[in-house]
Structures are given as structure tokens and as C-alpha cells.
Amino acid sequence: MPKFRKATKKFVAAVIAGTMLAALPLAGCNDDNKKKENSKTQSTAVSEQTSVPETKFGGDTVAVSENYKISYQVMQYLYTYVYQSFVSNNGTSMFDSSKSLDEQYYNESENITWHDYFVNNTKSYIERILVFAEAAKAAGVSLSDEELKTISDGFSAVESTAKERSMSTEEYIESIYGKGVTKDDIENVQKTTLLAQKYSNSIYDGFKYDDKQYEDHFNKDKTKYLIADYLSYDFPCTKVNEDGTSTVEDEETKKKAKEYADGLANSKNQKEFEEYLRKYLKSNPSLVSVQKESSESSVTEEDFNHAVDDTINYTKHPKTPYSDSSDISKWVFGEGRKENETTVLETSNSYVVIMCTKPAYRDESPTKNVRHILITPDVDSNADDKAKTEANAKAEKKAKDILQEWKDGKATQEFFGELAKKYSQDPGSKDKGGLYENVQEGQMVDTFNDWLFDKNRKVGDVGIVKTTYGYHDMYYVGEGMTVWKITVDSSLRQEDLNKKFEEFKKKYPVQFDDEAMKSFKLVEQPGLESSAASSGANLADQ
Q: In this predicted model, what pLDDT tens digit does every residue of 34-61 receive, in sequence order?
């Protein structure tokens, strides 16, 4: 698909940033190296749960609401997922992954261990799901046949995978999710989660705001929504040793680096900044990384000059949001910062020169709304050129035929949307009539982007665009929100969704067996290679 923007809807609590439990996956194709890395980080902290404590709810239930319940085994798997998500985003530098999590403090003054931390986040995770599922049920919301089919299709896929591994479906599910987890467990959680997400998203989409609300929210915390443009370059005071380690050079070398940094900081504008840096890099070729066609090929002058240009290009940081953890950001966004103002920041191993090329501002760039119908060539990637050419020709013809069907029919935006639902092969927009709203320039692949952001584009324009994904029938809907307003809109919606969650939480409380959850262990996944064993580890990144 075109490089569509990341989703802005957030269903799960903010403690698990960037993830959403859309549905428990039954089979996956996650990155092998990452899974091997995760298996290493868990080391002796991973245990297999062989016995399940009797809970206060009876049996193995550890989380319960009026109409839903979560078993000990499934909750323990989610505990493992929360752990793995944290490690994926933050690494293990904050605790010792070779030791038990309940022997290490997350907050010693409050007597909270890392085990407590992950248990509490797991509770927040599942509470969000059960509360919205209860609210959905009370509102009469249910899953469609098509939505239920996605779950059954998932089980068909896992059955095929289990067969390939000479395992029963039950054995394969246990190998992924842990001892005692059954197909019914997974199916029930999937249905509950999908229902919760469906209702949550409908609430999120239903909020309406006017310009005054956008302005008021923006003015409450401007720094959060402003961006800035700047240039930065590091003058190193270190050398790389043969063993790959770095050592700080002598005082004379540091002094020289500071002189270079001060020289760059004397630049009056971006042009002078780049000219100074170009001369410096050409005088210090070891600092320029040149990509060669092969290890045997020699570096030409043209190759080197391209590498210098690339290095200079990397100094540019346009439309960068504020970061409280960055000293550079704190300086760039400092009060009274002026265009082309420079400074030199000293780090432990370098001097960093910064030029603010555009002080903090609100991004007023327009966005676009578009409908499209994607037709992908029906051909294997390993097919020969003739087969690919024929498949492309068929896809192009189908795209032309669909566009002609639209012209011969009602030729309206609504009819285009109907055709998108009928023909489009883009799962990200098909159900919405091919609609993508608030597309920012540069978010789509080049040819798609160029058509959409053509300065002469008019509402109602149609056309066919070819990308590496196939042929797109295009319908230009018009301009969307300005970029700053999109960010504010997302913030407003999330705040209001959280308020609705707090309302629902009082009406549909969830109870947890905290005592039983104290015995949670990270799920061991026996009998599979690390990459396959972790295929269910990512519950959904959406």
C-alpha cells in the first residue's frame, strides 16, 4: 500500500503507547531478528506456568465484568505481551532482565516492583477492553458477519500453520499463548476486543469540534502543537578503536573540534552553514560515509561529493515537534529564539552546532481528502518479466474499465465510493469507500502524492495513477484540515474518549483478583523456534 499515515485512534491506555489490541493474532510474520532479541532479553526471567491458583471468582477467572471474564492463562499471556511491548519500545536498561521482576523495584519509595508495574499495566489494558465491550453491549452494538469472519479466517490460518508443523491446533495455540490457553479462550477475547474497538472507534469518530474549540485547545499548551526547523551537526571529539569502542581524544583534538564548531556557528544563514560544512567535510574525508557498489570498487570523486551532499542533507530537521528530553529541542524552542540564530552545545564526546532556521511556529500546511480504488496486478513477485507485463496490463485495463463504469453511471463522489467498496483491493480504505482524509504532503508514495498535491487539482477531478502497488482510480474530494488542527483534533478526541471511558468505568466496573495475579510469570513458549514461538507476541500494532 502507499505509505499511509499511522492511525491516530488510541483504544488502549496510554501506558502502552502506540499499540492497540485489535484482536489476538493467531499466526504472525514478525521480524525474526527482533523475536530472537526478545527471547534473549527474557533469559532466566521467563518461566512456564505449570499450575493455576484457585481464584476468588472460582475456577481460573482473574478479571470479570457483568458479561465478560478473562482466565488466568489468557491474562498471564497479556502480562507477557505488555512486558514484550515495553522491552520493544524501551529496551531493558531500566531493570535486569536476567533476574526475577518481583525482586527489582520500579519505585522503591512506594514499594512497587517491576512485576507490579507490568501487572498494573496489564489490568489497565484489559479493563479498557471489558469496559468498552460492556458499554457496546448495553448500546446494542454487535459484530457483523464479516467481522466475525475475520476471526474464523484467523483460526483457519492457524490450523494450516499447525499442520505444517505437525502439531494439533490445540498444541500450536498452547505453544504460542502458554499452557492451558484454548481456542475458545482466544476466540472469546478476540470477539470481546473487536466489539470494544468497534464501539470505541465509533465514539471517537463521533466527536465534533468547532474552530473556537481548536484554538482554545491549542492555546492551552502551544508548545505541544508547535514545530520548528533547524540544522545541526556534531563535531566529534572521539576516535573509533579497532575493537569498535570509542575513546575521547586529547585536549588538543577537543580544542580543534571546538574551533570548527565555533566557525560553523558563525554562519549567518543556511547557505553559509552548508558552505562551511562542505569545506570541512572535504578536508576530513574520514567523516564521510560513502556507499560503494561493492567492497572491491573504488570511490570516485562523484561518489564522494554525493556522500557529502547526503551528509549535509542529514543536518536538516524541518517541522520538528518539541521534545522535553532533548537539549537541542529545548534550545530551538527557547523563548525569543530568532531565525538563523546559532549555538554550540557540548556533550560528553562532541560539540553540537545548531542553527534555528525557523523558530517555533504553527504548521498551517493544507492536507487533502481523496478517494481511490486500488487494483493490484495478479502476479507472483518471482514471475518473469513477460508475466508481470501481462498482469500489469490487465490491472490497468480493469482500472480504466472501473473509471469508465463511474463515468457511464452517476459520476458522483458517492458512486465512486460504492465502486471502491466493490472493487478496491486496499484493505485500509475499502470499507470507507476508498476514502483517505487529511493526507499530508509526502505521506503517500510519490506518484500518488504528486497527483493529489498538483497545484491545479480541482474538486471532482478523477484520474489513474500507477504506483508500485498497482493502479489507482483517483477522485479528489478537496482540502482537509490544516496540519496543526489535525494534531489538536486528535488530542481533543483522545481526551474526550478517555472521559467517556471514565464514565463507562463507573457504570460497568471490572473486578480483578490481585492476589492470583501476583503469581504471573512471563509465558514460556516451548517446542518452537524463537521466531515462530513469538508469532503471537504482538497483539496488534495499529
A: 333 333 333 334 444 557 888 888 889 9
pLDDT band at 451 (very low <50, low <70, confident <90, very high): very high
Q: How many whole angstroms separate alpha carbon 264 and alpha carbon 356? A: 13
> What pLDDT, on a 0 to 100 scale, did the predictor assign at position 352?
97
Reduced to 3 states (helix: H, G, I; strand: E, B; else coil), residue 434 is coil
Give CA separation, 347 vs 264, 460, 489, in Å.
Answer: 17, 54, 37
Compute the residue count for the chain.
542
CATH of 227-291+301-361, one of 3.30.450, 3.30.30, 3.10.50, 3.30.70: 3.10.50
> In DSSP terms, which residues pair with 113 in a beta bridge?
105
User: What fold characterizes domain 32-209+497-530?
Assistant: Triger factor/SurA peptide-binding fold (1.10.4030)
Nearest C-alpha neighbor of 523 from the set 90, 84, 162: 84
pLDDT digits (tens, 9 = 90+) for 328-342: 999 999 999 999 999
The pLDDT of 453-458, averaged and rounded, is: 96
Domain parsing of the chain, residue ranges: 32-209+497-530, 227-291+301-361, 368-481
Are 227-291+301-361 and 368-481 in the same CATH fold? Answer: yes
Do residues 11 and 201 touch, judged by C-beta distance below 8 A? yes
Cross-strand bridge partners of residue 165: none
Can you spell out the DSSP letters for 369-404?
EEEEEEE-----TTS-HHHHHHHHHHHHHHHHHHHH
Percentages helix, strand, coil for the chain (3-state, rounded to 5) are 50, 15, 35
DSSP-based three-state secondary structure for 411: coil
pTM of the model: 0.77
109 secondary structure, DSSP code: G
Domain 368-481, CATH class in plain words: alpha beta
